[in-house]
Design goal:
- The chain has 665 residues and is mainly beta.
- It has one domain (2-664): Maltoporin, Chain A (Beta Barrel), CATH 2.40.170.
- The chain is 5% helix and 59% strand.
- The chain has a 22-stranded antiparallel beta barrel.
- A hairpin with a 2-residue loop joins strand 19 (275-296) and strand 20 (299-320).
- The longest helix is centred in the first third of the chain and has 12 residues, at 2-13.
- The chain is globular.
């Protein structure tokens, strides 16, 4: 229900005349492949690396992309609701994606109603996206790792950026404080609340029952870098973000929701003749709140649910230098976390956990062959003790100058879970730990493919297979707003999942023309849940069988076409008849199975134009475009309208003109 009304507010703020679309029936290895120029991508086995310029060029409702938006145009990735940052990689759950900033997890990455992420683009230096063959310092996830590396603060002179787009305005400054100390500061706020108030008056009641929309959105990032002496540096950084939303409905009810992050770290880096040592202490806090107030039969009802996770981690990573064919890395990590996944009516299920892991990663390379093996044992302590051993393998064989064979294999465990199966519209990611009776989620996968680089072209094609075990599914949404959530362990079911498919990517880079095309053909299922769907298999979240995108850039012009098969939702099943208290027959409908109805395909064309120019010391950058230029309605769920007594489809993003302006000096 929440997303139904939230979509109305979001669509309003998309500056269009239709507020709600609800319609019935309708590295140190073999040379990596590198594409240089405006869109620079570097490929390693199982991993794609990108620069800030390529990230910002991804099509987005905000006029410039972000790391999450960038990965949605890569093979193996299925997007959630159109226009949002939800992503599902190789049939995994959304909670299986690990997002880190300089190695520290960011659990609440969604920002501005899901239109972007909380890490400011100005702070991003580079991004790597790994979906197989994971490294030693990666762990506790089962789908992918999106690693964001921040920019190094400027050491020579002061630099300043000012940015404004449809939904955000902010600034960025970096420079030296002294010969040895430099800094970066960035901050953004969103004018969603004032925009709504202005448009509400202009549109004279055309916005349906949504009223008094309130939004408080912002973020801050800071980084300080101290060169203590040659080979020794100390870095301190912090990220804080806030999303708060509230609105009234015509029936007098009011809903509020929000989430926030605080991420901080201190890193001591030592570089010597034998190698590099990285000692890091980090703190991570993620919280969310959802509230509902209404009047029923003359009585005021107030519901509130809060969720919180606090985590402290100490880690050290060491990489040994080597002039030979072999080298190695090693490290250890110790984390303490305090989970409060549901605080309702005084009921709290608090879990304190301890997780310790270590890894050894070896690499061996020759002129044509590169092999990498990683072992990562982990001990996890909650109300019981668990142990796992992660194994990651990847290799590449350059058997022809223009053609290489590559493969990855992974066996991993995930001890933190995001409760899947919550109703569409739930704004919070409820994070819970593994406990007695709910073990770590297990993932095993393999990939094999070919990569060919010739001239300005690069082509890769491969197949993957993935198996999941101990996947958790929240089976009783009725307990969301009562004290039952405080004993969530009894309301989840454990099952399995599998996924398999073909991934293809093509890149071309010329002097003025760049082309990127990707396609995924896959099938992802969930099965063997005792209490969900009668034990029968059902579609995984956003199981889109065919996903494809094509992006072309010519000079400053760009166009991106996206096609994704429709996702699956709980559709109505069969009708049955009951008698009301007066003895009259009433026809009712029930859900016959989970994810039994397929939504229409997602089809979208985005166009844009970018221009840069300099006048004196001022560098200007203007991005203008239209997101979903075809105004194609891309519904992602259905709901039952009790007044009209009919099923309706819900979409978020209609045609959306966007503009982004940046000035640097």
């Amino acid at each position: 229900m929440v997303i139904r009304y939230l979509a109305a507010g979001l669509s309003l703020l998309l500056l269009t005349s239709s507020a709600l679309h609800a319609q019935t029936e309708r590295r140190d290895t073999l040379p990596a492949s590198v594409i240089t120029g405006t869109r620079r991508l570097q490929f390693d086995t199982g991993e794609i690396l990108s620069t800030q310029e390529s990230i910002r060029a991804a099509a987005s409702p905000l006029g410039e992309g972000d790391p999450i938006r960038w990965i949605q145009y890569l093979p193996g990735v299925s997007a959630g609701a159109d226009g949002t940052s939800a992503s599902f990689v190789r049939g995994g759950n959304m909670g299986g994606n690990l997002i880190t900033l300089d190695g520290v997890p960011v659990y609440g990455y969604s920002h501005v109603l899901g239109l972007t992420m909380v890490i400011p683009n100005d702070a991003v230096g580079s991004v790597s996206f790994a979906k197989g063959g994971f490294g030693g310092n990666q762990g506790n996830f089962s789908a992918s790792h999106i690693a964001v590396s921040s920019k190094q603060p400027a050491e020579d002179k002061l630099q300043t950026d000012l940015l404004v787009n449809n939904f955000l305005a902010g600034g960025y400054v970096t420079g030296p404080l002294s010969e040895k100390v430099s800094y970066t500061l960035s901050g953004r706020i969103s004018p969603l609340g004032p925009e709504y108030a202005a448009l509400k008056g202009l549109m004279h009641g055309q916005l349906g029952s949504l009223d008094h929309f309130m939004a408080g959105v912002g973020d801050f990032y800071g980084k300080f870098h101290w060169k203590i002496r040659d080979g020794k540096t100390l870095t301190a950084s912090a990220l804080a973000s806030l999303d708060r939303y509230g609105f009234n409905m015509a029936d007098g009810s009011r809903e509020q929701m929000g989430w926030d992050n605080i991420v901080g770290s201190v890193r001591y880096l030592t570089t010597g003749r034998k190698g590099v040592s990285n000692l890091t202490l980090s703190y991570n806090s993620y919280g969310g709140t959802q509230k509902l107030s209404n009047e029923f039969k003359g009585e005021e009802n107030h519901f509130s649910l809060r969720s919180k996770l606090d985590e402290v981690t100490l880690s050290e990573d060491f990489e040994r230098y080597s002039d030979g064919a072999a080298k190695w890395k090693m490290g250890a990590r110790l984390s303490y976390a305090d989970f409060r996944p549901g605080e309702v009516a005084g009921g709290v299920n608090r879990k304190r956990v301890l997780m310790a892991s270590a890894y050894l990663q070896t690499l061996r390379s020759s002129e044509k062959v590169r092999l990498e093996v990683t072992l990562r044992p982990t001990v996890f302590r909650s109300d019981t003790t668990m142990f796992s051993l992660d194994i990651n393998l990847k290799g590449k064989w350059q058997f022809l100058p223009f053609l290489a064979f590559e493969a990855t294999a992974d066996a991993m465990s995930q001890y933190y879970h995001t409760l899947e199966g919550l109703p569409v519209g739930w704004s919070m990611d409820l994070l819970v730990p593994s406990v007695s009776g709910i073990p770590a989620e297990q993932m095993a996968q393999g990939y094999a493919g070919l990569e060919s680089a010739f001239g300005n072209h690069l082509l890769s094609v491969g197949v993957y297979a993935k198996w999941l075990d101990h996947v958790i599914y929240y089976k009783d949404a009725r307990n969301l707003f009562n004290s039952g959530i405080s004993s969530w362990q009894s309301d989840v079911d454990l099952g399995k999942g599998d996924s398999g498919g073909v991934e293809l990517m093509y890149l071309y880079h010329g002097r003025d023309l760049q082309v990127q095309a990707s396609a995924t053909i896959s099938k992802s299922t969930r099965k063997d849940f005792r209490d969900v769907n009668g034990g029968k298999p059902f579609h995984a979240p956003f199981d889109r069988r065919l996903v494809g995108s094509l992006t072309a850039q010519w000079k400053g012009f760009s166009a991106t076409f996206t096609w994704q098969d429709g996702n699956w939702v709980n559709g109505r099943g069969e009708r049955y008849t009951v008698l009301d208290p007066s003895g009259n027959e009433v026809a009712l409908e029930y859900y016959s199975s989970v994810n039994n109805y397929q939504m229409p395909a997602l089809v979208r064309l985005d166009v844009g134009y970018q221009r840069r120019w300099q006048r004196g010391r001022l560098l200007h950058e203007l991005n203008v475009g239209v997101f979903n230029v075809l105004n194609h309605i891309n519904p992602f769920t259905i709901y039952y309208d009790t007044k009209e007594e009919t099923w309706k489809e819900l979409a978020l993003v209609p045609i959306l003109p966007n503009a982004s302006y940046r000035i640097s000096f």
